[in-house]
Design goal:
The chain is of the alpha+beta class and 338 residues long. The protein is 59% helix and 8% strand. The protein has twelve helices and six strands. It has a six-stranded antiparallel beta sheet with strand order 3-2-1-4-5-6. The protein starts with a helix and ends in a 17-residue tail after the last helix. The relative contact order is 0.05.
Length: 338
């Protein structure tokens, strides 16, 4: 073992990362003999290290049986084959792995989107169509558990944004058809038809919003800071109510001035619906909205009490002239003062 160590070649690098070779015990014996003879000591040659190994590393170079060389790391004691020039020009394995991972992720995402387009969304679209056209008095057989399951899978597969865009686009197209149908309505039926459209749409949302709960909770509320029901009601306001409000408001004012021309329940539903969509529309007809919604008019003032009383008396006279008598007053309980 000692003889093998003596024959080995030690490698040390200087501050310029050049490896200086010095022999073993035989070289030291030769140097000592030269010093005893008083001759000059030749300096060992320093050759650049192949491969540019960092200067902090030290090792031993050993000759192999095949003529190749191996490098022994002095810190870890592990052997590694020397890297040739042809091997050093090869691309790093990590870079190729990164490209493969990126391609795989892209293909997986494309497959997931294709599965969404072919399987999930068509089933959801059919269910939404059936829910949008149903009447409040009709019963349509729809598997809410299945719709809920499709929505859950879409959200879990990171298709929340895609699902939200498809849902809003689907409902927008439906509301545009509703608006076109209302434009063809005659004036005498316009209030009733608008009430049917609003009531039907509101009833549909009572079914659509719950089954899209996961989309609402994990995307609309958390990322958009909005609510699904509010967004869908805004679609009705933008694509239906706002387009027809200038036609609807004069008809409502006229119907309000002529009692029972339109059913009171229909009047109340339309006026309250408009106020819920856009409270600012109450300023277009304060007298109309104040008859169905409290606190539309400014607060009562004590100095105007006689005017309020005169207004009430005028209203009673108008009702009696239009065939609404006050009834038999003979059986009315007499006051204690009389």
């Amino acid at each position: 073992m000692e003889a093998m160590e003596d024959d080995s070649l030690e490698i040390k690098d200087d501050h310029n990362h050049n490896y200086c070779a010095s022999s073993g015990s035989k070289v030291r014996t030769y140097l000592s003999s030269q010093l005893s003879d008083g001759s000059a000591v030749p300096q060992p040659a320093c050759t650049p290290a192949p491969g540019g190994e960092p200067g902090s590393r030290r090792g031993k170079l050993r000759s192999g049986s095949t003529g190749g060389s191996k490098f022994m790391d002095s810190d870890s004691g592990s052997e590694s084959s020397e890297v040739s020039e042809s091997d050093s020009t090869a691309p790093p394995a990590a870079e190729g792995k990164f490209t493969l991972d990126s391609t795989s992720k892209f293909l997986l995402n494309a497959m997931a989107v294709e599965d969404y387009r072919k399987n999930h969304w068509p089933n959801l679209e059919k269910a939404i169509d059936r829910l949008l056209i149903q009447s409040p008095t009709d019963h349509i057989s729809v598997s809410y558990a299945q719709i809920y399951s499709y929505v859950y899978k879409c959200v879990c597969q990171q298709h929340s944004e895609l699902l939200y865009n498809d849902l809003t686009l689907k409902i927008t197209n439906h509301l545009q058809q509703v608006s076109t149908h209302l434009q063809a309505s005659p004036p005498e039926n316009f209030i009733e038809n608008f009430n049917v459209a609003l009531t039907q749409y509101t009833a549909s949302l009572q079914c659509i919003v719950p089954v899209f709960m996961y989309l609402n909770k994990f995307y609309i509320e958390s990322k958009l800071n909005r609510d699904l029901r509010e967004d869908l009601m805004k679609l009705f306001a933008d694509h239906v109510a706002e387009i027809h409000v200038n036609t609807l408001m004069p008809l409502l004012i006229k119907a309000h001035s002529m009692p029972f021309q339109v059913q009171p329940s229909t009047m109340a539903s339309v006026v309250k619906g408009l106020y819920s969509l856009r409270p600012d529309w109450a300023q277009l007809a304060p007298a109309l909205f104040s008859g169905f919604i409290p606190q539309i008019n400014p607060p009562a003032v004590e100095s105007l009490l006689p005017d309020y009383a005169a207004h009430d008396q005028k209203l009673q006279m108008e009702l009696s002239m239009n065939g609404f008598p006050r009834g038999d007053q003979s059986r009315k309980r007499a006051s204690e003062d009389s």
